[in-house]
Structures are given as structure tokens and as C-alpha cells.
Amino acid sequence: MKKKILLPTDFSKNSWSSIAYASELYKNEEVDFYVLNAFQTDSIFPNFFPPKPGDEAYETAKEKSYSGLENLLEKIKDFGRYNNHEYYTVSSYNTPLNAVKKFIEDKDIDIVIVSNKGETNDLDTIIGSNTINMMEKVRNCPVLMIPSNVTFKIPNEIVFPTNFETHYKKRELNYLYEISKITKAPIRILHVGKQDGLSEQQKNKRMLLEECLDGLEYSFHYLKETDINEGLQLFVESRESEMITFINKKHVFFDSVFTKPMVKDLGFNSNVPVLALHDLKN
Questions:
Q1: Cα torsion 175, 179, 184, 187: sign
Q2: Cα(92)–Cα(272) distance, rounded to whole angstroms?
Q3: Taking residues 190-205, what's their average pLDDT?
Q4: Helices 130-137 and 96-107 meet at what angle, rounded to 10?
Q5: Residues 116-143: pLDDT tens digits?
Q6: Taking the model in full, what pTM does it have?
Q7: What CA–CA distances, in Å, run from 124 to 262, 264, 265, 269?
Q8: What is the CB neighbour count within 10 angstroms for residue 268?
């Protein structure tokens, strides 16, 4: 069965990085890629009524979207598409987040792959951006964020930070498993904590995680740090790790990792692809 992968784009140079990365990551897989552009109008309408098909502002924005998608398809052809890949373009009058959520439901998308920056490179715009919103609020589909400055290479390893307090499920870890399998990248399971050792409950969760990752290469690592941000950063930088994944559980872990000071001061998540998985109970 073909994979269905959604590629949101705003036609920026940055968003091209996610398309190129996705093509190379899945070069040996049969994939239907859906390139989605969500368009809106800049005009302010009386009484806040949204523009409708036929309105000048609507038709102008729609034409710009259609034209951009046509040009993007040509660029994909020039880039060199694989014979096992098909590309379809979608133009939607909507916000990027809502367009993505609706299309996931309509087409039963497997994974969303998106750049971490849009039309601007200003780090201040990353937090609260469309990408961060997608990683946090698209709850029924994994989201893989590709930094705009990253060109594809097989990741040397995938870092999976966890506190061993999650009820791991194979279906939640499916895309981590798959990416590790197709790239042959080992998984480095990182526990950052204040105290040495694990409780009995954590040990049981660790055993469950091992069952979920059976058949893959993985190893366990521990750092005694009080701050998950610092511990994760130190681990990734010291090992030059090339991908991070995490389970976005009730927004708590997400908020602790992707804080504005960390992005602005350290530029951490702008250098490493990040795969956001989701706790399917939420």
C-alpha cells in the first residue's frame, strides 16, 4: 500500500527543504505526496464577512496559489523525482493549520513533513508559527519538522528523550520504527533526571518500550541534569546526533522542550530534524 505524505508549502525557499528531504527519505518507498498550499486574502471586508469565490480578492489569492503550485511541480520535476513517487497539488482557502488538519482527515494522511520556518528567517517568528502549531495541535498524525538549512543525509542516530513514564504503544511509535528501519539509524533512548536509577514502574515502562522497538538497534543513555532542555542539548551536540523524536504527551513535554529562550538563544531545533509523535489517548 502506498504511503500518503502531506507537504505543506508557502512557496518559500525554506519550505522547499522539507519537500526535498521527504523525497530522499522515502526514495525507496512508494509514496503519494500531497503538496498543500493554504491561501488567504489580505483584504479587510465590511462586517468581517470572509471573501467568497468570485470576489476579486479571493480570485487573486487563489490564482497566486494555483500558479505557485504549478511552478513548484515543475521544480520537483527538475529536481529529479523518483519513479515510485507521485505528486498531487492541493490549494485550500484556509489557515495553514486548519487546512492541514482537514486534509489529514479527508485523505487519511500517514505523516506531515514541514519546514521549521516560513517566509522569514527571523527566529522570533518560529514560536507560535504554523510549524509549531502543527507539531503541537495535529494530534492524529505524526509531524516531521525539517530545518531549512538541512539537506538530506541518512541520520547517524535518532535521539528519543523519555522519562519512562509513558504507556508506550507500537502504533504510536510506528513512524519512529519505520524511519529507523529504512535509514538503518539506531535509536538512542535518553533519560534526563535528577536521581540515579529508575523506579519499579519506570523499569516496567522501559521493558515495554523495548518490546515496541524489537528488531531495531537501540541503546539507553542517562544524564543527571535538572533541566531537560540542557540535557537534551548537551547529548545531541556532543554526539552530533542528526534527528530527534518525542511523544507529545498532553503538551507538557512539548512545552518544556520548545521554549522561546531555547530556540532564540541556542538555535537548537533549527539544526536537527524533529519527529513529533502523539499520545493517542489525548
A1: negative
A2: 29
A3: 87
A4: 40
A5: 765 544 434 443 467 777 887 888 899 9
A6: 0.87
A7: 11, 7, 10, 13
A8: 20
